[in-house]
């Protein structure tokens, strides 16, 4: 397996709905935010502007993985 990047990472960004910290998760072609509490998925775009370190490094891994 040549995959370095994790499929999921814990971020500190709060869920817009319940305030719990969101996970970032990727599927084969895209990534989205996932709330472990209310099981909602959110579009990644609104979160990128306020990305924390965990999300940033996850996205870096995501892009590296695509090359
Ligand atoms: Zn939630």
Provide structural commentary.
This protein has two helices and four strands. With 67 residues, it is α+β, with helices and mostly antiparallel strands. A four-stranded antiparallel β-sheet has the order 1-2-3-4. The structure holds zinc ion. Zinc ion (ZN) binds next to loops.
Topology:
Blueprint: E1 8-14, E2 21-26, E3 31-34, E4 41-43, H1 45-48, H2 53-66
Antiparallel strand pairs: 1-2, 2-3, 3-4
Zinc ion is lined by residues 15, 17-18, 20, 35, 37-38, 40.
Note the main attributes of this structure.
alpha+beta; globular; 2 helices; 30% strand; binds zinc ion; 67 residues
Can I get a quick summary?
The chain has 67 residues and is α+β, with helices and mostly antiparallel strands. Helix content is 27%, strand content 30%.
Strand percentage lies at 25-35%
**Sheet with most strands: strand arrangement:** 1-2-3-4
Individual helix count? 2
Which structural class should the secondary elements be placed in? alpha+beta
